[in-house]
Design goal:
mainly alpha, 0% strand, 137 residues
């Protein structure tokens, strides 16, 4: 009966860890943010393309606006693309940090399991030695 309770506790611990990981993935841009990011990317793409198109139309129609420099829309588009690249690098760093955290946790668990395994081996060796000494007597 104690073995079943221990197994049930292990299952509950696994579920808690799984939920914690799921929550953390959502915080760094997991599935919860995919829809929002897709909308932002579409809007960004439309805005950059519209800036280029407006600049092309301005050159095609020979429209000269005094309050807007000639290459203004191209400069804004380049700025926005640069900001997008910086944002993507930042997101990638967050993902890499999370992967490092996961790998570090796995290594910690493996080391912890190795220590427990060594303790169990020592306990078995001691139990075998006790059995041998009691059987010799």
């Amino acid at each position: 009966m104690a073995n079943q309770e221990a197994m049930q506790e292990e299952i509950n611990q696994y579920k808690r860890e799984k939920e914690a990981i799921r929550t953390m993935l959502g915080q760094i841009g997991g599935a919860g943010n995919a829809k929002k990011e897709k909308i932002i990317n579409i809007l960004f793409f439309i805005f950059v393309i519209s800036l280029f198109v407006l600049d092309l139309l301005r050159y095609a129609t020979n429209l000269h606006l005094e309050f807007i420099p000639e290459m203004f829309s191209v400069e804004i588009a380049v700025l926005l693309v640069s900001m997008k690249i910086i944002w993507m690098i930042h997101k990638q760093q967050k993902v890499e940090h999370f992967q490092f955290w996961i790998l570090n946790t796995i290594e910690f668990q493996m080391n912890n399991s190795a220590v427990r395994l060594r303790k169990i081996e020592k306990m078995l060796e001691n139990a075998n030695k006790k059995e041998e000494t009691t059987s010799e007597e």
